[in-house]
């Protein structure tokens, strides 16, 4: 419970949702910083302004739309959904504040470190270029650990996971075998997606909508575990018929058999009031 608001099991997924939103916002900000003018042409303040101009607007729009969506969801009639939406809307708001008041200052501190050419780990030591250390006959290990320079372009700050996949994909797509492999993989992806969509199991465990200390939660778990049953399909006949005639009875029997042929319906159990009535002592065929 937080601020008088109950906590439900469904709300347990909120941290993972917020982590995803936060990481996405972080990548947007860092991408904006990577595209900023280099330090030898601009100051840290100008680079931060460029980053917030490019990425700050994007994360603001996404955060506001997310909060509005969850605030609207808080008007749901289900109490558990209302609680989930309230918690998530507040979490998205604080995630946005963390981006502005924690991540952005951390990026600014790192930019000051880069401007002063200080080592990324032990910031007290200033780094020099690889050429200077090579002239001093430093070892490769020393050069790898302590050499560096201010980034001059986006490519200088890209990690191997950003550089090599682009090169590898462009190399693969130059040749027909590579194009064929990509086409086959994409076709397999489409087929598996269609199969998954057609065989997707839908449903909701209602006991997850209440707290674990609720008596309904225990009842729901036991009912799902030991007394599993799907909802019954009801067929209603609204027109007036002469149910005592064999023709109408045969039509109803044919309708029930047609419904049972559906693959999604269990044909081992059916409740037919007409069949029960025919077997009773009150039935009169006239």
UniProtKB/TrEMBL annotation:
Compartments in which it is found? Membrane
Q: Which UniProt keywords apply?
A: Glycoprotein, Membrane, Transmembrane, Transmembrane helix
Return the Pfam families for the record. Patched
Q: How does it sit in the membrane?
A: Multi-pass membrane protein
Sorted alphabetically, the Gene Ontology cellular component annotations on this record are: membrane
InterPro entries associated with the record: Patched_domain-protein (IPR051697), PTHD_SSD (IPR003392), SSD (IPR000731)
Where's the SSD domain?
1-109
Transmembrane stretches, start-end:
12-36, 57-80, 86-109, 180-198
Q: Which family does it belong to?
A: Belongs to the patched family.
UniProt protein name: SSD domain-containing protein
Q: Which organism is it from?
A: Magallana gigas
């Amino acid at each position: 419970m937080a601020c008088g608001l109950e906590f439900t099991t469904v709300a347990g997924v909120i941290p993972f949702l917020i982590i995803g939103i936060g990481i996405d916002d972080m990548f947007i900000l860092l991408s904006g910083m990577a595209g900023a003018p280099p330090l030898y042409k601009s100051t840290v303040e100008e680079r931060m302004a460029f980053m917030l101009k490019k990425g700050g607007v994007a994360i603001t729009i996404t955060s506001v739309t997310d909060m509005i969506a969850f605030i609207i969801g808080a008007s749901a009639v289900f109490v558990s959904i209302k609680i989930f939406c309230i918690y998530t809307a507040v979490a998205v708001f604080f995630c946005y504040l963390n981006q502005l008041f924690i991540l952005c200052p951390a990026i600014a501190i790192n930019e000051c470190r880069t401007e002063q050419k200080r080592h990324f780990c032990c910031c007290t030591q200033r780094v020099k270029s690889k050429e200077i250390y090579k002239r001093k006959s430093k070892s490769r290990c020393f050069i790898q650990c302590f050499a560096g320079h201010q980034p001059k372009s986006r490519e200088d700050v890209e990690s191997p996971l950003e550089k090599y996949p682009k090169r590898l994909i462009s190399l693969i797509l130059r040749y027909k075998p590579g194009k064929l492999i990509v086409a086959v993989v994409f076709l397999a992806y489409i087929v598996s997606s269609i199969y998954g969509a057609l065989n997707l199991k839908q449903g909701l465990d209602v006991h997850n909508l209440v707290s674990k200390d609720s008596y309904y939660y225990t009842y729901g778990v036991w009912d799902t575990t030991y007394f599993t049953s799907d909802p019954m399909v009801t067929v209603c006949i609204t027109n007036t018929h002469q149910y005592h005639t064999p023709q109408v009875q045969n039509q109803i029997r044919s309708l029930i058999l047609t419904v049972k042929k559906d693959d999604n319906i269990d044909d081992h159990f059916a409740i037919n009031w007409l069949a029960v009535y025919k077997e009773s002592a009150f039935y009169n065929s006239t």
